[in-house]
Amino acid sequence: MDLALLSALNAERAARRATVLVTETASGVQRLVKEADLAADPLAALLDKQLRSGKSGAVEAEGVSYFLTVQAPPPRVVVTGAVHISQAMAPMAEMLDLDLAIIDPRTAFATPERFPGVTLLPEWPDEAIKTLGLDGYTAFVALTHDPKIDDPGLEAALRSECFYIGALGSRKTHGRRVERLMAAGFDEVAIGRIHAPIGLDIGAVSPAEIALAILGEIVSTLRGPRRHLS
Amino acid sequence: MISTDSDILATAETWAKDGRGVALATVVETWGSAPRPVGSHLVIDGEGNFLGSVSGGCVEGAVVTEAVDVIADGKSRTLEFGVADEAAWKVGLSCGGRIKVYVERILAEEAN
Question: Which stretches make up the XdhC Rossmann domain (chain A) (predicted)?
Fold first, then answer.
């Protein structure tokens, strides 16, 4: 592979744009197709299908074999609440290759001392999300328990293509949240996208266990369960 | 250090820009219970330093050895590991799966 091609691929990754690296299996000839140029490519239909699957793989077109390396943007988790659970979540997310961004306008909570090395946005969610942008490779998690902070974040997430939306709180808390979102104009289908109670049901008690349950649910949504009970 | 696919490709770029000989190994096909999915990468330099994984530790040693040859002669090659192959059984995919790995050199020359 040409170094220039590798540099271009890494630059697209850093900008959170998808690419497909096309390698002709027999000759080793390669080209990089950016998401924006995909429609104009001779293999457009095949590339599009592969990109949607999010997985790399071998394909054949008119008797020629290709290997398609799919580079989807790294999945990202955007959280409202610089709280105990998100502190536990930070090192776990890093190991899972999930980019983490934490939003909390309460500057006493959102401090670098509490979140070393984490992207912190000490702003209101509507402002912060304008900067971050929420795409189809983003999970949104509301953890503050405070509707003033969580609700604007949830509303932005519901208007976006986020692959996962979750909100912390008891059934009763969520019931009141649903009423507020209904009043704000969201219908049942939209609100149904919110995972609440949040996280896999592993009986989580401590902040770290809750963080694990949430990240487990995010990974499960991203990858899809594969084991079936026969 | 735990490396992710983004780290691996970024490392491949950094190593190549530092003037080191670099090869990239990619899992291109798997059968059975292969430990790493298609598209997983391993980056190797001419000294045999490596980052990433193509099999969860079972055949990395063999891939690294081949990669050093790829860096030396510049020829890409496809390696296959699995229980059907006695030599591969020695390096061991004990899970019983089979994998095919494509190893290519990173070409730093602008002329290419």
Answer: 77-218
